[in-house]
């Protein structure tokens, strides 16, 4: 990848500077960041680092901060700071109204966290499959189909992550854990995966059409269906149980057609927000107010995102016309 920072700059571009953090929980498995807007909770997830720590300096300071302030930590190497930043980014990006039209997956009873693998199973028979990240219960697929699993802290049957340099270029299908975004391995792993069909998966997935630019063919992320249950489950140490209480898997193929439709949907929604805010600002000043419009920063954010979306749509449209 020419510039490994590009994906992180893209994530930060789409992170709101006005939405305020309501609460953050760093659970044993999942870190959850939530905002409260119009009496509705919005959530972002990221996988908590494996190694515990007792020396973080910022606990007790995150609630009340803008998402984007915390999101800047995605550029840092301290794992808890980067993880919390990723949760803040997802809290901004993964809002229900902005999600694409995806295929909702039926959870596998007793193994809901493996639902994505079951969905793709008919497509990957007799293929070289590499899974980056050890998912509880994946041993079944290793034994029955010969899949190879790479893990930073390998257990029996896993290969250490340096094996990626040898295995990924020859793979047919790669399932890439979105936690690779927070731990900074994503740029290299995505680069090594260019010859394969690549699925970015897990609750840490940011729903961004621009991920096709990094060689991602499918997004297999989550939709939060019960933010309160999600928060409580994660705070109480829940891992795979969040799939039974707070989230459900959805899959989207990042084809040109799907991406163009997704861009159009987001542009329309963002333009509507811009019009609503612009009208509110006009009314504010027409009433004789001399102070800055209270939602000026939100309007500025909306204009910025509209510009990003327009550019993204034009880039993809031009690519389609040239092929």
From TrEMBL:
Q: Where is the DUF4213 domain?
A: 8-90
Note the Pfam families from the entry: DUF364, DUF4213
Q: Which residues form the Putative heavy-metal chelation domain?
A: 116-252
What InterPro entries does the database record attribute to this sequence? DUF364, DUF4213
Name it.
Heavy-metal chelation domain-containing protein
């Amino acid at each position: 990848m020419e510039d490994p920072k590009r994906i992180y700059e893209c994530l930060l571009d789409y992170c709101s500077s006005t939405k305020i953090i309501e609460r953050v929980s760093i659970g044993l498995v999942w870190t959850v960041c939530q905002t409260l807007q119009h009496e509705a909770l919005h959530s972002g997830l990221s996988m908590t680092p494996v190694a515990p720590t007792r020396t973080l300096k910022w606990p007790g300071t995150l609630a009340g901060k803008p998402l984007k302030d915390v999101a800047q930590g995605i550029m840092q190497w301290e794992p808890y700071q980067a993880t919390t930043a990723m949760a803040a980014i997802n809290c901004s990006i993964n809002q229900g109204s902005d999600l694409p039209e995806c295929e909702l997956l039926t959870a596998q009873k007793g193994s809901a966290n493996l639902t994505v693998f079951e969905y793709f199973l008919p497509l990957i028979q007799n293929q070289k499959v590499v899974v980056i990240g050890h998912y509880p219960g994946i041993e079944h697929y290793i034994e029955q189909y010969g899949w190879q699993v790479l893990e930073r802290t390998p257990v029996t049957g896993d290969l250490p992550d340096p094996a990626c340099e040898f295995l990924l270029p020859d793979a047919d299908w790669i399932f890439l854990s979105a936690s690779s975004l927070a731990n900074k391995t994503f740029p290299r792993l995505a680069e090594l995966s260019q010859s394969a069909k690549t699925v970015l998966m897990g609750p840490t997935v940011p729903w961004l059409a621009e991920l096709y630019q990094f060689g991602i063919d499918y997004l297999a992320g989550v939709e939060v269906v019960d933010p309160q249950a999600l928060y409580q489950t994660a705070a109480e140490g829940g891992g795979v149980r969040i799939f039974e209480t707070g989230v459900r898997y959805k899959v989207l193929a990042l084809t040109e057609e799907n991406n163009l439709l997704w861009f159009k949907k987001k542009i329309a929604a963002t333009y509507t927000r811009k019009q609503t805010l612009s009208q509110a600002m006009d009314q504010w000043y027409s009433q004789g107010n001399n102070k800055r419009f209270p939602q000026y920063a939100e309007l500025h954010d909306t204009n910025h995102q509209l510009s990003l979306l327009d550019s993204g749509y034009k880039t993809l449209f031009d690519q389609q016309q040239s092929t």
